[in-house]
Amino acid sequence: MPTLKFAVLAGDYIGPEVMAEALRVLGHVARRENLTLAHTAADVGGAGIDRHGQALPASTLKLCEESDAILFGSVGGPKWEKLPPKEQPERAALLPLRRHFTLFANLRPGLLYPELTDASPLKTSRIPHGIDIVCIRELTGGLYFGLPKQTTILPDGDVQAVDTMVYRKSEIERITATAITAARARKRKLCSVDKANVLETSVLWRKTVTEYVAAHAPDIALSHMYVDNAAMQLARDPNQFDVFVTENMFGDILSDEMAVICGSLGMLSSASLGTGKNSLGFPFGLYEPAGGTAPDIAGKDIANPCAQILSVALMLRFSFGLETVAARIEAAVRKAVTSGTRTADIAFGGASVGTSAMADAVIANL
Predict the structure, then answer these.
(1) Catalytic annotation, pick one of 118, 219, 237, 256
(2) DSSP state of 79
């Protein structure tokens, strides 16, 4: 078995708490599967600012470069909100990591177990069997990275801000290829989301996706939907989707909407995959929970560690090729939760357990 060499960037507030439990689950699996772990922790986000003066210290970036994957926590919080926007943890840590490693594909499963439908703001009658969909978001193009990006004072004294949405055909093709792979592993059904009735980039997006799927994946049932309609359809009938793919800003918004209808951010993981391969020949990736740092519950042993644990499973699947082990962790989380062991965010006012006890239940079901 290969050595699993990865960087651990736990982040801020509840980040270190849930990361510790995820690593404990991974350690248990490693002993059972005879896996060798070689992980090293480093500061990022607010912790990086406090200890090194920047959200992504050079030493942290170097560690990531020497690793086969990054297991990421959550960054940011009220302590650093008064910093200039470009220096705040989220913008000064995550965006540079995405850019540096060309982490162009974000895979976020939208999963709600049938037993947890009460956690969703949607009526149970709309999702009687829960939710099981996947969002594929392009992560390194569009408005967030396009140039020019600037704020200027005009000759008449008015202030003008400019962001630029830019996409190349090659960028669209590579995210489409990722979406095809995801669709083939599920129901072979793919919906591409754009705004082709208004945006030039979306005209190119729709044309490119259509041509690429026709040429490389005629077995995939492809559909298209405008982003405003997609937002409504997610709230009306989320399971009409199986896999949907979209550009950066649309994906940012839709994936968060998806997280809300799935009930609890504490259950949702994500993978950001890059163009490069790691030393084992698998995709280099960054794996993180969908939720934030939750300052209000930090240090109280009540945060839900499941999203971080499920992010470990994604890391094992994509960056280390350990599908069977990844599936075992996912099954253990599901069994623990559906058997009744739940943190407060998914307990609906009933009996709940703490962060460590939740991880204990996952380990007991491995």
Answers:
(1) 256
(2) G
